[in-house]
Write a structure and sequence with these properties.
Elements: E1 17-25, E2 28-29, H1 31-44, E3 48-54, H2 63-77, E4 83-87, E5 90-92, H3 101-118, E6 127-129, H4 133-146
Parallel strand pairs: 1-3, 3-4
Antiparallel strand pairs: 1-2, 5-6
Length: about 150
Amino acid sequence: MGTNKPKNWPRLDDYDGVIVGTSLKINSWKKQVKTFLEKNKAVFKEKRFGVFTCGASAIGESEDACDDIAGRLTKNYELVADIHDAFAGVLDFSEDSNLGRTGKMALKAAALELEKEKGMTIDKERRNDFRDWDKIRSFTEGFAALLQ
């Protein structure tokens, strides 16, 4: 979605399939994505439909984060995606980060929890990139195969 305003969202009738993605902020999906899913859930029941999230919850093992997607779709929207996945993101503590003070504090708390749970080391002064581009590529190729 290039824009957050519903009036500017594309007409989904023009597409064979749709992938919806959202970052996670304090383990919550973005409001615009939730609105988009609610507004278009009838369309998603008729088309190929994929969902992904990107956030700290998928760092390390992403199975629980992936199960969370399926659970939220079913519970909140009565939807089942043809394909879904959870991708690890970037934890950016650098001076260039666009996070405000509160955001950095919340992210540091999440980082400490990840270190404790998964035995990881996270640099809380720099940018930590946990994205797995092969996994992301595989997801998009899998969705493309569904459309053929």
